[in-house]
Design the sequence.
C-alpha cells in the first residue's frame, strides 16, 4: 500500500521559560521540532508498510527549515519525503493548508492511506486531517487508537470517543488521524540517520501540484487573524500552605469551599 | 477563494448550534452553545436554531427550547446511530445550502472536531477551533472569534468576513447555559437523511461504552491530577477517591501514563488533553512545560508536593507543601463531614 504521512514542524516547548509576570511560557526563541502527535503518525505509517508492503512518504508544508522534520521521518524508516515550500503557501489557514496538502497527495498519486497526527501542538485545531479528507472526498476516521486490520480495499480502525470507542471499517483510500496510544515511536538507528542526511528532499511549488493560487496562502484562507493579544495574566502570587497533614488538608478544603466546589 | 458579495452575504441569517450527542443523549455542551448563540442572536436580532442529528432523538430535541433555542431541525434516522462523519457532513451541507445560517457553532468534542472541519471545507467557509469568546459585529454580521493558541500563550481574534456561514467550535464548559425556562416554546422542522448521504461511508462494526474511556476531562469542573509522585497505580486509586467525593475527574501527567499507572485517556498536557477547568489539583506533578501548556489556563491551580521547588509549585495559586499520601487521606476523611 502507498501511505502518505502529513507532518508539521512546530515550536518546541521543552526548553521554554516561564514569564514570572504572566506565569506563561515565553514563546520567543524556541527551537523547532516535529509535532509530537505526528511522530505517532510516522511510526504507524512505517509499521503498516513493514507489515503490508508498499511505501510510505512524509509530506510537509512549511518554511525551508521544515526539511529537518522530514529528515527525522526518514531516519525512522520513511521511504521518501516531499516539502511544499513557497511564499505563496505562507499564511495559509487550515482550509488552505488542507487544500495544498490534498493537491500534493493527488500529485503523489495512487495513495491508499493518509495518516496525520491528531492535531499540531501550536494551533491545536485538529482540522487539517478531516480537511484533507474533505478536499479529496475520501472517508475519514479521527482519534484512531489502533489499526485493527488492513486489506487491499479497506482499513479497520478503533476510534476513541468521550464515552468509549468504536471499531469501523473504511474503504480505501482514506484519511486517519492518530492519538498517542496507537504505538510507541522508535528511535532512529545510526543507519537511518545517515540515510536521512543523504536524502535529497524535493521541494514542490504551487505549480508543481496544480494548486489554484486563489485557494492557497492568505488569499485562499477564509479566516483572518485580526488581533492577537496576551491572555489575561495569572495572579503571580502563590499562597503557600505548610504544616501537619491535618492543617494542610483543612487549608486546602477551605480553598475548595471558597470556590464552591465543596 | 472567491469572496461573497454583500448581497450574497445578506442571504444568510440566524445562529445555528450543532447538538452534541453521546450514546443517543444530548450533552450539556449543547445547552452551553445555545446560551452563547442566544446572546449573538439577540444582538443580531435573529434566531437560534439547533440541528439535532441522531436516531430516536425527536422528543429530546424539543427540550432545547427551554435553554433558549427558537427552533430545532430534527434529523431522526437509524443511519445516524453512532458517528458516521461522512453522512453527517452531507446532511449538514444540504441543510446549510437550504437554510443559509450566518453562524454555525459546534462543540469542540471528538465528534465535533471530526465533523465540522469536513463541513467547512465542503462549504468553502472558515472555521475557528476552540473559541473562548464569541461576539458579533452588529453592522455586517461578522463573528469575532477569540481563541487561545500555543497552549494558551496568545489570544487571537479571528474574522471570516468574506464567507458564510462562519463556523466555530467551542469546548465544553467554556460558555454558560441559560437557566432553563420550561415555558419557552419553539418551532420544529424535520429533515431526512437521503440515500445518497449514506452512500460511500464508513461502516461501524462495533461500539463499546467504557467507563475507563469516559474521562471527559474537558467537561469536569475540577480535575485531580497525579504525576510521578503518586508512585504507582495505588496512588491513583487515592486520587480516584478524592475525585469522586468532589465530583471531579482524574488527570495524569505523561510520566504517570507512560509508567502504565493510568490510561492515556487521562493524560493532560501537550500530547494529552488541554484543560480549562475551574480548579486543577496537581498531586506530585513536577510541572514539565509539556504538562503546563495543557493546564495553565485553569482558573485556579493547587499543587501538592513534598518538594517546594518544582515548577508546578511555582506557578500554582496555592502550593501545599507536604506528603500527599498523608494529606489526601485527611481530605477524603474531612470533606464528607462538611
Sequence:
Amino acid at each position: 500500500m502507498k501511505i502518505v504521512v502529513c507532518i508539521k514542524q512546530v515550536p518546541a516547548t521543552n526548553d521554554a521559560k516561564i514569564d514570572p509576570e504572566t506565569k506563561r511560557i515565553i514563546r520567543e526563541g524556541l527551537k523547532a521540532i516535529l509535532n509530537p502527535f505526528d511522530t505517532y503518525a510516522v511510526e504507524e505509517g512505517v509499521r503498516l508498510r513493514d507489515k503490508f508492503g508498499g511505501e510510505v512518504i512524509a509530506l510537509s508544508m512549511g518554511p525551508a527549515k521544515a526539511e529537518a522534520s522530514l529528515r527525522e521521518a526518514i531516519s525512522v524508516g520513511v521511504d521518501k519525503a516531499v516539502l511544499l515550500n513557497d511564499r505563496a503557501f505562507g499564511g495559509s489557514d487550515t482550509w488552505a493548508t488542507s487544500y495544498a496538502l490534498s493537491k500534493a497527495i493527488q500529485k503523489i498519486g495512487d495513495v491508499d492511506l493518509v495518516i496525520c497526527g491528531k492535531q499540531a501542538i501550536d494551533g491545536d485545531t485538529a482540522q487539517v486531517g478531516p480537511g484533507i479528507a474533505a478536499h479529496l472526498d475520501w472517508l475519514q476516521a479521527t482519534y484512531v487508537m489502533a489499526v485493527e486490520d488492513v486489506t487491499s480495499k479497506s482499513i479497520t480502525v478503533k476510534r476513541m470517543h468521550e464515552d468509549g470507542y468504536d471499531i469501523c471499517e473504511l474503504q480505501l483510500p482514506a484519511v486517519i488521524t492518530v492519538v498517542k496510544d496507537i504505538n510507541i515511536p522508535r528511535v532512529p538507528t545510526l543507519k537511518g540517520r545517515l540515510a536521512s542526511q543523504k536524502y535529497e528532499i524535493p521541494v514542490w511549488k504551487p505549480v508543481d501540484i496544480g494548486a489554484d493560487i486563489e485557494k492557497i496562502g492568505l488569499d485562499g484562507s477564509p479566516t483572518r487573524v485580526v488581533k492577537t493579544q496576551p491572555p489575561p495574566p495569572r495572579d503571580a502570587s502563590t499562597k503557600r500552605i505548610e504544616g501537619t497533614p491535618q492543617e494542610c488538608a483543612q487549608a486546602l478544603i477551605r480553598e475548595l469551599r471558597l470556590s464552591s466546589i465543596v | 477563494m472567491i469572496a461573497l458579495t454583500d448581497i450574497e452575504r445578506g442571504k444568510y441569517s440566524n445562529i445555528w448550534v450543532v447538538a452534541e450527542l453521546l450514546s443517543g443523549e444530548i450533552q450539556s455542551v449543547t445547552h452551553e452553545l445555545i446560551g452563547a448563540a442566544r446572546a449573538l442572536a439577540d444582538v443580531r436580532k435573529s434566531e437560534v436554531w439547533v440541528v439535532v442529528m441522531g436516531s430516536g432523538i425527536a422528543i429530546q430535541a424539543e427540550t432545547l427550547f427551554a435553554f433558549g433555542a427558537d427552533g430545532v431541525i430534527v434529523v431522526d434516522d437509524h443511519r445516524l446511530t453512532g458517528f458516521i462523519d461522512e453522512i453527517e457532513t452531507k446532511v449538514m451541507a444540504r441543510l446549510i445550502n437550504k437554510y443559509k445560517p450566518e453562524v454555525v457553532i459546534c462543540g469542540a468534542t471528538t465528534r465535533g472536531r471530526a465533523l465540522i472541519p469536513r463541513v467547512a471545507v465542503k462549504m468553502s467557509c472558515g472555521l475557528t477551533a476552540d473559541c473562548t469568546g464569541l461576539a458579533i459585529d452588529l453592522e455586517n454580521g461578522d463573528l469575532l472569534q477569540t481563541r487561545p493558541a500555543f497552549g494558551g500563550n496568545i489570544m487571537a481574534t479571528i474574522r471570516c468576513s468574506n464567507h458564510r456561514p462562519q463556523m466555530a467550535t467551542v469546548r465544553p464548559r467554556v460558555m454558560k447555559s441559560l437557566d432553563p425556562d420550561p415555558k419557552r416554546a419553539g418551532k420544529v422542522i424535520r429533515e431526512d437523511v437521503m440515500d445518497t448521504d449514506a452512500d460511500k461511508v464508513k461502516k461501524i462494526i462495533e461500539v463499546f461504552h467504557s467507563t475507563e474511556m469516559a474521562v471527559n476531562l474537558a467537561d469536569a469542573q475540577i480535575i485531580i491530577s497525579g504525576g510521578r509522585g503518586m508512585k504507582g497505580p495505588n496512588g491513583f486509586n487515592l486520587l480516584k477517591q478524592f475525585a469522586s467525593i468532589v465530583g471531579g475527574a482524574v488527570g495524569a501527567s505523561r510520566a504517570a501514563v507512560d509508567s502504565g499507572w493510568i490510561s492515556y485517556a487521562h493524560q493532560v498536557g501537550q500530547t494529552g488533553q488541554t484543560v480549562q477547568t475551574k480548579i486543577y489539583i496537581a498531586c506530585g506533578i513536577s510541572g514539565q512545560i509539556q504538562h503546563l501548556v495543557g493546564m495553565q489556563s485553569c482558573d485556579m491551580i493547587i499543587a501538592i508536593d513534598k518538594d517546594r521547588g518544582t515548577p508546578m509549585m511555582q506557578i500554582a495559586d496555592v502550593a501545599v507543601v507536604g506528603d500527599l499520601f498523608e494529606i489526601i487521606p485527611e481530605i477524603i476523611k474531612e470533606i464528607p463531614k462538611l
In short: Helices of chain A lie at 36-52, 67-75, 94-108, 128-136, 190-198, 245-258. The mean pLDDT of chain A is 92.
